Amino acid sequence: MAAQVTSKSKPTTGVEIDPVYATILRPRALALIGDIYHGPILMRDGLIAALVKENIPVTFLEDPTALNAKALAGYSLLIIARNGRYWPDGYGKPQTAWMTEEQQKAIWDFVESGRGFLAVHNAHTMYPPNGPYYKLFGGDFGGHPKPYVFTIRVENKNHPITAGVEDFDIYDEQHMSKYFLDQEHLLLRSVARDNQQAAAGWWNEIGKGRFCYLSPGHTPEALNHPMMQRLIRGAARWLLRMD
After folding, report:
1. I need a labelling partner for 201 at 20 to 30 A (CA). Which of 72, 82, 165, 213 fits?
2. Which has more pLDDT, 23 or 153?
3. What are the angstrom distances between the C-alpha of 66 and each of 38, 60, 103, 234?
4. Backbone conformation region of residue 56, classed left if phi is above 0, alpha if psi is from -120 to 50, else beta
5. Strand partners, 209
């Protein structure tokens, strides 16, 4: 019978094992990525670089119609890194939101039951207005100027998500998010050179589950910035109650 390996055990090599790699019982993530303005490769590569360091297996999905309660059943973490825009008559024609009432309910139930939801960059853009998705989110899309250099300022240095994260400059879209929660839930603020400011990261709890939004992610430089990578990892750990 094989000996069990714990976070403090030392196998025959005599090397203490990192808890991240001590067991095959890892939580699984489902990531919905890619839209006409944000290619799936950009989002895939940025997310997987952070998740692999936490040994979190992730399945990537590009077709939003495949996101439903049945699809979510085998996962502990949902990640959405795409907008909600849909052009039923082709790009450039009138647009609507692709997310249905059933999908909103599936996500709400997923979180309320005790699992985690990480929303990245434009995951608050053009979803069904006044629905449970935005209620869960705690914010809404507020537009953005063209990309430029601005600062991500850590507003709450004591939260597990921001542990070890310092203020950093990025070249990205500064999303001027509409923020509906209070100061306690605010993690990050974006500050432009002309002092335009907006909430850029926050957390929320719904029922037994957890939610986190992180604003950066339009450019490879922003998504792969060491501090953003640390934020994604911290968010994943907190959402999955791994700390």
Report:
1. 72
2. 153
3. 19, 11, 10, 28
4. beta
5. 206
